[in-house]
Structure formats: structure tokens, C-alpha cells
């Protein structure tokens, strides 16, 4: 039997534009103070989490998309509901009919307007102006005048001025109405979808108290129907009817009076709206995880709780045919050496991404992964802040100082660093890096750091395991295998790579001679190794 177009999308990435300004809207306004950790914008940028999100997002609704993004950025304090969530995920994977019915309902919230539902419970609402008390009076006066006009046409001189005044108020309110014209109809949709989902016993377990929130929203349903009707008007006849309805609304000031009445009611029902939003968003996020897992050749559910990182066949999700690597930290941190482009930074990012994915979505891009529950901090992508007159080195100093502050807390941390202090001179860089890396690797913290400073490999053997990535230089080619290898890098190929790229021979010869002299000096007076 041929599958529907909807089900063909299950397990596949989206082909659409990602508006992160709207996707992040819920996350930016949400109070995540009770979360174990909120992933910072710095770490998000370092680990390319926006690009990762574009890969893993398989949601059907804008609500689910916002909710999933928040899940990725906010590591929860507990995982009490993981068992329930895994049951729902597995049901999505196994039951095509269940999956299709759920997807059909969620897709009703696929319009960008659904992004604005969260503003109804997260943002301040418009407050009616002080003069607005006259609006009900104008509405009542217009109604009485229109009724009396049937018996006395001379009252037209009263009706017309009232109509003009009401028209001014009506169109003044249009700007206010536009702010909520997107969210009100979507709120009615999500309420209906939540009511339908709640009939399923498995979904019901997500929030057994949901009917209370739905009942509260039903109290404002009728008042919001007017705003929903306007968005559905299409065709010539309907437009003609719309004109008639618009005149009635002007005469009675229905829109401004109802708008502020609804806002007053909604303002007291924020928790109910959030409960419905969270219920539907959670379901769509779980659908997305199910779709993600279906589309992956290799994934695992992490084992969380020990004080080391042990991974088998870990890979970066954004790299096609990515070379996998395995690692056991053996209760130590990791110091990586290797040439540029050999895979050091990608491996560090892979560890960070998988740590966050495991703690937030219970899914890792690996064959198996054991890891502690720890906070993730990074110093990978650092640049000059020219607008604030801050150099690269100063930006790096500030970033790493924050890491040092976090390293002294009772909660374990994972620190990810790439080429520490490469913005300063060799002697001071090595001296400072040794002291800082030793400090960071205390209190059950784990550090993954890459460096070109081979001297550090001799200074940090007590607290760091040494690994490296290397390239193979053959004739006129440089090949990378991207495989993690134990021990420190022993071969140096930087000058050889210059030679392969046709640098002048006099430069190559001078570079070789200087390198040999420096090596000889280091053997005679290895002061750098005693810093």
C-alpha cells in the first residue's frame, strides 16, 4: 500500500526556512531559572546548535518547534518523565496510524501565526486607555439611537455623529487588534487539539490536570470567536457580508470592547494557556524525537550518572558519513594535539553536542554513551569585539574566567576549549594554560581541550589523558583519517605541508633550520617544560 505524503516525511529532515527570531521567542521569554542549566548563547554558537536544531527538528507545528528549541537549550533538573516519554516515542515509531492522526492535528498549528500563542501567557498585554470608559456609553447610545431611528428619521442627525466618533475609535483599535489577530484564533485551535489529544490514555499521563486548564479557556472561547471569523473571510459574497458586519461592529464598538474584555480575562488565565501550550508542544517534540531516531542509522539512549565520559562510535550529526570515534575518559580530562583540519575541534564539538542531546532529548549520536550529569561551557569560537574595543585575547580571558568561576561549584562541569590562549606569546600562553587547565580539571569536572603546544602534554599527565589526530603526508598529498589516537602527536608536518603547497624553497629551508635550532636549544635548556 502506498504511504501518504505526511508519513513519507517521517524520519526525514525539513526543507523549509527557519525563522529563529520566532522559534526562540518562547525560549527567550520563558523563566528557566529552575532548570539544571540554560545553555548560553556563547556555547550555542560554539557548538553550532542552531544548525544542529535544523537537523533534528521534525516537528509539525510552530508550537512544537518552539517547545523543542527550548528543550534543547534548557537542561532539566530531573528526568522523572523519561519513561513515559520513551513510551510515547516508541509508539510513534511503531504505530503509523497513531502517528498519522497526531501529525494531522499538529499540522493545524503549522502557520506562522501559531508562534504568537506563547505571547498570550509570556508577555504584557495591552491595557485600555483611561478614556476608554466612554466606549460602552458610545456603544449603548448608538444602539438606542438606531432603534429610535426606526420611529423618527430626524434622529439621523444624532446617529451620524455617533457613527463617525465610533468609526474613529474602531479604526484606532485596529492597530491593537492586529497584535492579537494572529494569536487569538490559534489559541482556540490549540485548545481544541489539546482536548482531542487528552482522550488518548498515554497522552493523558503527560498532564492529568489538563481538563481544568481547558475548562478555563472555554470561558473566553465565545468572546474570541469574533476575531477568528475575520481571518476566515474569502470570496466576493463573504466580503460583502464582511462589510455589513463591519458596519455593525463600528456602530456598537464591538471590537475594542470585546478586545479589552478578552485581554482582561486572558491576563488571569496565563497558567491555563501555558499548560495547554506545553501539553501540545511536548507531544510534538516527542514526535520529532521519534522521527529523528527513525532517520538515523546509529543512535543510543545515554546512561547518565557516573563521573566519566565513555562513548563508542560517537559522531557529529551535521557531517555526512562522519568518521566515528570511541573514548573512555577513565576519570580524567582529555588533551588533544594534532595539526589544523585533522579533526580536533570537530571531535570536541561532537562531545559537547552529544552531552547536551543526551541530557535534553535522551538521544545521542553514538552507538553507546555513558556520561555524568554536568553543565556544559565552551571557549571554541572567540573573536575580537571591535565595537567595544576588546582584543581576541581579552575576550578569551573573560570567557575562561567565567569557566574558572563555574569550576569551583559543587555541580560537575564539562569544559570545552580549542587552542587555549592562542592570542598571546608562547611562554606566557603555556604557563597560563597549564595553571588554568589543572584548575579546571578539579571537583569532578571534565575538560576537553586542544592545543598545538606539545609542552603541555608533559605538564598535564597527572590529570589529563593524551590523545591526538594526525594526517598522512604522501608525495604531493595530505590525507586525514580523522581517527582519534592515544598518546601525544609525535610527528610535525606543518613545514612539509607548506612545501606541498609550493612555498619558495628558501622559505622552506630557513624554516627547517630554525626548527632544528629550537629543538636543539630545548634539549640543552628545557625551561619551557619546567614552567
TrEMBL record:
Transmembrane segments: 131-149, 155-172, 239-263
The keyword Nucleotide-binding appears for this protein: yes
Pfam family, one: MutS_V
Organism: Plebeiibacterium sediminum
Full protein name: DNA mismatch repair proteins mutS family domain-containing protein
One Gene Ontology term, aspect cellular component: cytosol
InterPro entries cross-referenced by the UniProt entry: DNA_mismatch_repair_MutS_C, MutS, P-loop_NTPase
GO BP term, example: mismatch repair
Domain DNA mismatch repair proteins mutS family: 331-516
Keywords: ATP-binding, DNA-binding, Membrane, Nucleotide-binding, Transmembrane, Transmembrane helix
Gene Ontology molecular function, alphabetical: ATP binding; ATP-dependent DNA damage sensor activity; mismatched DNA binding
Amino acid at each position: 500500500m502506498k504511504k501518504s505524503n505526511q508519513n513519507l516525511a517521517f524520519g526525514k529532515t525539513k526543507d523549509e526556512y527557519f525563522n529563529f527570531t520566532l522559534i526562540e521567542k518562547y525560549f527567550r521569554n520563558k523563566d528557566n531559572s529552575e532548570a539544571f542549566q540554560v545553555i548560553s548563547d556563547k556555547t550555542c554558537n560554539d557548538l553550532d546548535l542552531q544548525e544542529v536544531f535544523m537537523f533534528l527538528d521534525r516537528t509539525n507545528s510552530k508550537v512544537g518547534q518552539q517547545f523543542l528549541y527550548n528543550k534543547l537549550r534548557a537542561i532539566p533538573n530531573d528526568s522523572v518523565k523519561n519513561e513515559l516519554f520513551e513510551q510515547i516515542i516508541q509508539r510513534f515509531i511503531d504505530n503509523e496510524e497513531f502517528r498519522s492522526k497526531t501529525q494531522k492535528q499538529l499540522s493545524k498549528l503549522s502557520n506562522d501565526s501559531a508562534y504568537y500563542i506563547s505571547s498570550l501567557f509570556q508577555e504584557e498585554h495591552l491595557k485600555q486607555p483611561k478614556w476608554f470608559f466612554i466606549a460602552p456609553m458610545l456603544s449603548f447610545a448608538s444602539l438606542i439611537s438606531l432603534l429610535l431611528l426606526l420611529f423618527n428619521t430626524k434622529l439621523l442627525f444624532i446617529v451620524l455623529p455617533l457613527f463617525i466618533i465610533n468609526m474613529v475609535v474602531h479604526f484606532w483599535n485596529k492597530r491593537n487588534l492586529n497584535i492579537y489577530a494572529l494569536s487569538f484564533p490559534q489559541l482556540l485551535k490549540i485548545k481544541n487539539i489539546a482536548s482531542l489529544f487528552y482522550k488518548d490514555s498515554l497522552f493523558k499521563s503527560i498532564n492529568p490536570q489538563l481538563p481544568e486548564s481547558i475548562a478555563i479557556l472555554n470561558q473566553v472561547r465565545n468572546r474570541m470567536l469574533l476575531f477568528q471569523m475575520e481571518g476566515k473571510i474569502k470570496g466576493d459574497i463573504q466580503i460583502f457580508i464582511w462589510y455589513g458586519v463591519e458596519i455593525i461592529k463600528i456602530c456598537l464598538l464591538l471590537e475594542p470592547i470585546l478586545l479589552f474584555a478578552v485581554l482582561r480575562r486572558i491576563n488571569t488565565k496565563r497558567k491555563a494557556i501555558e499548560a495547554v501550550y506545553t501539553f501540545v508542544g511536548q507531544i510534538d517534540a516527542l514526535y520529532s524525537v521519534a522521527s529523528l531516531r527513525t532517520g538515523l542509522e546509529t543512535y543510543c539512549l545515554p546512561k547518565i550518572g557516573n563521573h566519566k565520559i565513555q562513548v563508542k562510535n560517537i559522531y557529529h550529526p551535521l557531517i555526512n558519513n562522519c568518521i566515528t570515534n570511541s573514548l573512555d575518559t577513565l576519570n580524567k580530562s582529555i588533551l588533544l594535539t594534532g595539526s589544523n583540519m585533522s579533526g580536533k575541534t570537530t571531535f570536541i564539538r561532537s562531545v559537547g553536542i552529544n552531552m547536551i542531546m543526551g541530557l535534553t532529548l535522551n538521544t545521542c549520536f553514538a552507538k553507546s554513551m555513558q556520561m555524568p550529569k554536568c553543565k556544559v561551557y565552551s571557549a571554541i569560537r572567540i573573536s575580537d569585539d571591535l565595537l567595544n574595543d576588546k582584543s581576541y585575547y581579552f575576550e578569551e580571558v573573560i570567557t575562561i574566567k567565567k569557566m574558572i568561576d563555574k569550576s569551583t561549584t559543587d555541580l560537575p562541569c564539562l569544559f570545552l576549549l580549542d587552542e587555549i590562549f592562542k592570542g598571546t606569546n608562547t611562554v606566557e600562553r603555556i604557563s597560563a594554560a597549564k595553571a588554568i587547565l589543572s584548575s579546571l580539571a578539579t571537583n569532578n569536572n571534565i575538560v576537553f581541550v586542544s592545543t598545538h603546544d606539545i609542552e603541555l602534554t608533559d605538564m598535564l599527565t597527572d590529570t589529563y589523558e593524551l590523545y591526538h589526530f594526525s594526517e598522512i603526508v604522501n608525495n604531493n598529498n595530505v590525507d586525514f583519517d580523522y581517527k582519534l589516537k592515544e598518546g601525544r602527536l609525535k610527528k610535525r608536518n606543518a613545514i612539509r605541508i607548506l612545501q606541498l603547497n609550493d612555498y619558495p624553497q628558501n622559505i622552506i629551508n630557513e624554516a627547517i633550520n630554525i626548527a632544528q635550532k629550537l629543538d636543539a636549544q630545548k634539549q640543552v635548556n628545557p625551561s619551557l617544560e619546567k614552567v
